[in-house]
C-alpha cells in the first residue's frame, strides 16, 4: 500500500530531525565520537528509525555534509559577478555571506574537519572542493570586473577570492558568537578592504 501524503510528510520531518541532531553531534564529537545510538537519542527517535533513512553512519555523515550544499550554493552564489557597479555588489555580497556564515557554526565546523582530514573523506571532500572552486571563480570574475572598471586596485583576482572565502570560514570557526550578535557587523565593513576599493 502506498504511503499517504501525511505519512510521507511525517517521514520527511523525521529524517530532517535526524540530520539536524547528527549535524550537531558530528560538529561537537567528531565522526569517531558520534554513534547512531547518540544520534537517535538526540533526535528522540528509535535506534532502528535512523536505519530507515540511512544505511550506516557513513551514509548519515555524507548526507549531513553533502545535502545542504545545493541550498548553500544558491545563497552563496547569488551575487552578480558582472554587476555594473562592482563595489556596490561586493558590499551586498559580503553582507549576505557574513550573515549566512554566522548562522552555520556546526555545519562549517564539520567542513573544516573534513578539509583537515581530506584523505579520510575523499568523496565528500571532492564535493566541497568543487563548490569552493566555483565560489572562488565567481568572486574572481567580480574582482576582475571591478579592476577593469578601475574601481578596485590591481592585484591577483584569484588570490583575493581565495583569501575572501578563507576569511568567511575562519570567522565562523574562530568565534562562538551567535548569528544575531553585533560582533559580526564590523567584519562587513572591514572585509571590503580586502578587495582594494579605490576612492572615487
TrEMBL record:
UniProt keyword terms in alphabetical order: DNA-binding
Per the UniProt record, the lineage of the source organism begins with: Bacteria, Bacillati, Bacillota, Bacilli, Bacillales
The keyword S-adenosyl-L-methionine belongs to this UniProt entry's keyword annotation:
no
Name the domain of life: Bacteria
Stored Gene3D superfamilies: Homeodomain-like, Tetracycline Repressor, domain 2
Q: Which residues form a coiled coil?
A: none
Query: Which PANTHER family does this one have?
Result: HTH-TYPE TRANSCRIPTIONAL REPRESSOR SCO4008, TRANSCRIPTIONAL REPRESSOR
Matching Pfam families = TetR_N
Q: Which residues form the HTH tetR-type domain?
A: 12-72
- Designated name of the protein: TetR/AcrR family transcriptional regulator
Residue ranges of the DNA-binding region? 35-54
Origin organism of this chain?
A: Shouchella miscanthi
Amino acid at each position: 500500500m502506498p504511503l499517504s501524503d501525511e505519512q510521507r510528510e511525517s517521514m520527511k520531518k523525521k529524517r530532517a530531525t535526524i540530520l539536524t541532531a547528527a549535524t550537531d553531534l558530528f560538529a561537537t564529537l567528531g565522526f569517531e565520537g558520534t554513534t547512531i545510538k547518540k544520534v537517535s537519542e538526540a533526535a528522540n527517535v528509535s535506534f532502528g528509525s535512523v536505519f530507515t533513512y540511512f544505511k550506516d553512519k557513513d551514509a548519515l555523515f555524507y548526507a549531513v555534509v553533502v545535502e545542504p550544499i545545493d541550498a548553500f550554493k544558491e545563497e552563496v552564489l547569488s551575487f552578480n559577478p558582472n554587476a555594473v557597479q562592482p563595489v556596490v555588489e561586493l558590499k551586498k555580497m559580503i553582507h549576505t555571506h557574513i550573515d549566512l556564515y554566522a548562522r552555520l557554526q556546526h555545519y562549517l565546523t564539520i567542513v573544516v574537519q573534513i578539509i583537515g582530514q581530506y584523505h579520510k573523506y575523499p568523496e565528500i571532500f571532492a564535493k566541497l572542493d568543487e563548490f569552493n572552486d566555483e565560489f572562488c571563480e565567481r568572486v574572481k570574475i567580480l574582482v576582475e570586473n571591478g579592476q577593469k572598471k578601475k574601481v578596485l586596485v590591481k592585484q591577483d583576482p584569484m588570490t583575493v577570492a581565495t583569501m575572501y572565502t578563507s576569511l568567511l570560514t575562519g570567522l565562523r570557526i574562530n568565534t562562538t558568537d551567535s548569528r544575531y550578535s553585533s560582533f559580526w557587523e564590523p567584519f562587513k565593513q572591514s572585509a571590503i578592504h580586502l578587495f582594494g576599493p579605490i576612492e572615487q
